[in-house]
Design goal:
It contains 2 helices and 9 strands, in the order E-E-H-E-E-E-E-E-E-E-H. By secondary structure, the protein is of the alpha/beta class. The chain has one domain. The chain starts with a strand and ends in a 9-residue tail after the last helix. The protein is about 25% helix and about 20% strand. This is Dienelactone hydrolase domain-containing protein.
């Protein structure tokens, strides 16, 4: 999990759509951030789709695969210090992709059901915010 200084200092609404099976950037770390945003009174909502991996919303239905050698910081706790430098919380040293917490071989893959649900949610939200009740292009 990465935590930045002033990370709740946002003015606009935030909507995130996340796969429950995402092991590249796991949902619980993002959920902790959204909890902080909500506690700060921000308009932030995170939707987690079951059985969806990282990149579930890709436009083509690719099966979930291992991205061999790709790096993920899923096991790292990274914090921004006062000077803006990202630090490995476990070691107290500046974060590096050579740190022991960096793991490899996360999964990515499409999930048409989750992608379609996310699209419906985004369109509904935009209609609410921007007004209008017409059908979205392609409907």
């Amino acid at each position: 999990m990465t935590r930045y200084r002033d990370d709740t200092d946002v003015n606009g609404p935030i909507r995130e759509f996340h796969g429950a099976d995402d092991d590249y950037d796991p949902a619980p770390a993002c959920a902790a951030y959204f909890e902080r945003l909500q506690q700060a009174g921000r308009d932030a909502t995170m939707t987690v789709f079951p059985h969806a991996s990282h990149a579930f919303d890709m436009p083509y239905a690719m099966p979930t695969v291992v991205v061999k050698g790709a790096q993920t910081v899923r096991a790292c706790r990274i914090v921004e210090n006062e000077s803006g430098e990202l630090m490995n919380e476990a070691t107290g040293a500046p974060f590096s992709f050579h740190d022991d917490c960096v793991q490899t071989d996360p999964h990515v893959g499409g999930n048409a059901q989750a992608r379609d649900a996310a699209i419906v949610d985004v369109i509904a939200y935009l209609k609410t915010v921007l007004g209008g009740g017409g059908d979205a292009p392609g409907d």
